[in-house]
Structure formats: C-alpha cells, structure tokens
Structure prediction request, 166 residues.
Amino acid sequence: MRKIVIIGSGGSGKSTFSRKLGNKLKINVFHLDAILWKPNWELESKKEQIKIQNEMVKNEEWIIDGNYSGTIDIRLNAADTIIFLDIPRLVCIYRAFKRLIQYRNKTRPDMREGCQERFNIEFFKWIWEYPKKKRPSILNRLQQLSDEKEVIILKSTEEVKQFLVK
Prediction:
C-alpha cells in the first residue's frame, strides 16, 4: 500500500480516514477538495483537474481522497490500493450536518481557504442518492479492478476503526 485512493459518499469520513491512514503509514495525503476548489467554491477546469492529478500520481507514494468521477480513472489506474468507504447514507448525512455545525463560517482543515463549510440541498440530495445513483457504478468499476489492485470496501464506522488499528 503505497499509492492509495480513498472514495465514498460525502460524509463517509474520507478526509478523516485519509489523514489517520497517512499518519500511520507516513505517506503524504492529498485532499482533492482542497486542491481542486478555488476560493468561493470555484472548481478548477476539467483540463486543470487532469493536469493536477496526472502530476500527483507521479509521486512514489500518496493517499488521494475524493471522488471526482470525471477524473477518477487517473487515480484508479495509478493506485495499488483503492479503499471505498461504503458507509450507510444516514450516517453520512448526520456527519455532513455535524460538520456544518462544527465548521460554520469557517474553512475545514481539508478544504482550500476561502471555501467556508456549506450544506445545500444539492449536496444533501447527492448524499441521499449516492447509494442508488453512484454506488452501483463504483462497485462495478472496483470489481473490474479487483484482479489488478487491492480493493478494500469498509461498510461501517467499526470496520474503518478496525482497519486503522491493523
């Protein structure tokens, strides 16, 4: 495990998990949200996203957390390990609301400065629909990779905790 991709719904704990895993393995962590969003929630162009991620995956070791399905193949192809935090939607929604309260009018540590925490109806809808709209295609894609890469699916907070203490 030297090139690790962390994916999952909003509120699944990708950033926290990535940070803890990075500390444990002594590997640099790249939070795509902090890299691809400019201040005031302006997203980098797709061309720039591709350029940034192609440079990132050239490193010998890394943990990259974030979904960004339009560029996910860059990371999946370069990774040796993919970890999917397949956490129940109600847990994800609870965590997203909790994060909103915790970082209200602030920028959380895994975001770029100038992107204050927010929770709007589109984000809520994305989390709510994730199990039906995004999860099946992710599982299908991971199944295609399972012979070439180590694919780990963690389905609960307890499984995440156990993984980190191994």
User: Anything to note?
Assistant: The radius of gyration is 15 Å. The chain has one domain: 3-165. The beta strands are 3-8, 29-31, 37-38, 42-43, 62-65, 81-85, 150-154. The chain has a mean pLDDT of 91.
